[in-house]
Amino acid sequence: MIVVMKPGATPEHVQHVVELVREYGLKDHVITGTDRTVVACIGDKRMVDKSAIENAPMVERIVPILAPYKMASTEVKATHSQVRIGPAGFPIGGKKVGIIAGPCSVESREQLLRTAEAVRNAGCIGLRGGAFKPRTSPYSFQGLGEEGLKILAEARDRSGLAIVTEVIGLEQVEAVAQVADVLQVGARNMQHYPLLEAVGKSGKPVLLKRGMSATLEEWLLAAEYVIDAGNRNVILCERGIRTFEDYVRNTLALASVAELNDKTHLPVLVDPSHGTGHAHLVPAMCRAAVAAGADGLLVEAHLDPERALSDGAQSITPAALAGMMPVLRQIAQAIGRDL
Ligand code: PEP
Ligand code: MN
Does residue 239 form part of some domain? Predict the structure, then answer.
């Protein structure tokens, strides 16, 4: 349920409600809006004496939260959230659309530093690259691990870009969080609940990819795990789902962007690389994602896609990345945004 405070309620009034809520064994999340504050209360409400809370000073009313994903829901927070990432604190979820690009995997120091420069020059705000890779085959390149993290840290120091990198296991959360500006939880781990709780406690923004067979509700409930663990800085990333279709690696479900913008206040990115599997489809899907209202894009870009150690077929070149920016900017401006 949500306790809606009257406009003008002081921090003391809010604190009084928080204490009442805690007495009933509920978890409180205070959300301060522009004109009023609400206290979202999560837990078993059967034993709660609602009238006691309703009659507390400066309480306007109590409303139930109907969505199963409570904290992620627009019922609790109607205005869209911003998540600030990287050394420059770029706001994902604001007026500006943020583009994050880079290789699927960190392959070498030279590769990543050169890519970082190209990505920054193209006007991106973040650099992606996996040090730990979740690969379908145990014989495929598994990433450089700790060495990859060091390279990512150097790339951030030199470029000022926000570093987005995946954490695939519980035991890596601490090490990855020391380097990453954004912890990526991949499609295969979207329902790895202990990992969601661990990244929720890490203090770093989390990029939560959609599981390849997850419904929107399952995805938002996964986000809820991260928020419930104490981390409101969750960014969702649509990366396509498994269907019968086989001209693409995954079917990029772009309607999810519009639906999510209605159902949740969390920012939404689109990954057209995993969402199609083919570099030649990526620019068109980037354009479509921005038009659909995505807050940003996560794009795989490689200096030499033919020789990439992972996901070369869906990686565009830095030149192609730079080439699509002007039209993405025009599309963003056409819908009242910027890039
Ligand atoms: C990736 O971003 O390289 C990746 C493995 O993505 P996903 O989890 O969406 O497959
Ligand atoms: Mn990849």
Answer: yes
Q: Does residue 183 have its Cβ closer than 6 Å to ligand 1? A: no
Look up the CATH number of the domain holding residue 192: 3.20.20.70
Q: Is beta strand 234-238 parallel, antiparallel or unpaired with respect to 59-63?
A: unpaired
The set of residues, in sequence order, having a beta carbon less than 8 Å from that of 274 and lying 6+ positions away, is 187, 239, 240, 249, 250, 300, 311, 314
Distance CA 183, CA 199 (A): 7
Do the Cβ atoms of 62 and 2 come closer than 8 Å? yes
CA of 187 to the centre of ligand 1 (A): 6
Cα 27 from chain centroid?
A: 24
Spatial CB neighbours of 327, under 8 Å, sequence gap ≥ 6: 287
Number of structural domains (the chain) is 2
**Displacement of CA 130 from its chain's centroid (Å):** 16
Judgement on whether residues 37 and 128 belong to the same structural domain of the protein: no
Specify the pTM. Answer: 0.95
241 Cα to the center of ligand 1, angstroms: 12
Query: Is residue 115 in a domain?
Result: yes
Collapse the DSSP code of 39 into the 3-class scheme (helix H, G, I; strand E, B; otherwise coil) and give the result. strand
pLDDT, mean of residues 101-125: 98
Residue with tokens 């945004």: 337
How many angstroms is it from 201 CA to the middle of ligand 2?
A: 26
For residue 44, pLDDT beyond 90: no
